[in-house]
Amino acid sequence: MSAVLSLDDLKARAAGLQFRNQAFIGGRYVDAAGGETFDCISPVDGRVLTKVAACGAEDVDRAVTAARAAFESGVWSGLAPKARKAVLLKFAELIEANRDELALLETLDMGKPIGDSRAIDVPATANCIRWYAESADKIYDEVAPTDPKILAMIRREPMGVVAAIVPWNFPMIMAAWKIGPALVSGNALILKPAEQSSLSAIRLAELGAEAGIPEGIFQVVPGLGEQAGKALGLHMDVDGIAFTGSGEVGKLLLQYSGQSNMKRVSLECGGKTPHIVLADTSDLDQAAEAAAWGIFFNQGEVCNAGSRLLVQESVKDALMEKVMDIAKGIKVGNPLDPQTRMGAIVDREQMDKVLRYIGLGQQEGAQLVLGGKQLQTEEGGYYVEPTIFDQVDNKMTIAQEEIFGPVLSTLTFSDPEEGLRIANETVYGLAAAVWTKNIDTAHKMARGLRAGSVWINCFDGGDITTPFGGYKQSGFGRDKSLHALDKYTELKTVWIELGS
Prior knowledge:
The chain has 500 residues and is α/β, with parallel strands linked by helices. It is built from 15 helices and 24 strands.
């Protein structure tokens, strides 16, 4: 796909796509056991793309049975690490080779701009799989420093059958963050994509099989959360679940674990990221650019979106003017248009939720200074313009609850201590950003912020080598980096008395 392709060219390519819409269980595509389906509706124009298999408890049980048999056989867990590496490297190559198709699937399914799907999502997915593949033969077990008559080995072993439940905002990337470490560790993985965005996950299963991932080791069970997701959470033969999504569902998965086999659960459950700009920042233009795109990128559908802009009073007016100028210049429109910078909200339910929050912000006394309305109504899709509130109090609903849309709440503070207090006054703790040229202030703020990631003079910094996850109700456990392996492995101590 070339950057010079027009909207009409991309529409034509999209029209020619053949959608995989079945579950991938036991190495082949199958319908749901009961024949149930759900409509896959594109947020681009509201049309039904296809009907996707709606898996339930019986389908989940089939997948778990296949996963357990494959795991116990050693067909994957028993391979030399370098052999697993070779297969996963091939998987990454196939993702890149099919980047045009995967990018179109991502854009049609969840509404993100095609430029982002192709330049960000597909490369990041392939890079994640490749990075974990390369780690396969570089992770060592340990020998404890015991008495010379004792040999104590600390071994890292695969957990067994693990499930991953991923959200709709970055379907491929979030899946890759689970697939990479789970498979390289030797587990059998069952992926449950969000019902709003199942198409790329279903296609990835086929590419994984083509790369050589054995039957039963990587399976995909699309379906509704209250059916397929709940069945995975309650299944007695699932050893662990890695989840990214809402706090409400995360708490349910913890309950399911307690009600079943006490399976290990790791959660990443969103945030309300404070984007803190102090008066001594050296570059207000750069801070404004980061603040604007920190909330409007991906239509604001980002768990660590900088949805709370905390500005020191003396620079607030100057910064707000710059942020608003950037927001006014963002092209909102058809995600297949290469010129679009902000696409469609994932579905009508989420769009209505965003609009309700905007109305609630006005009711509670915040000043709406930009946006606030639905756009592109004639196209049948789900579009909301970039929206900015001023004079927001941190106790307001829009400052405390995760909106997951292009809505920025602006708050002010008098000094760094007050800014830090306001930043931490939330149930979330996923990320935070600070702009200051004072190194002492930067360190004090970074130390004081209760968040899993703190960015200084930038926003959303990091790569696959750094862990990602949160404090408080943003969850526990980490994606990315070698730390992610902890979620999919067990530590076993082998204590040997060597004798005299």
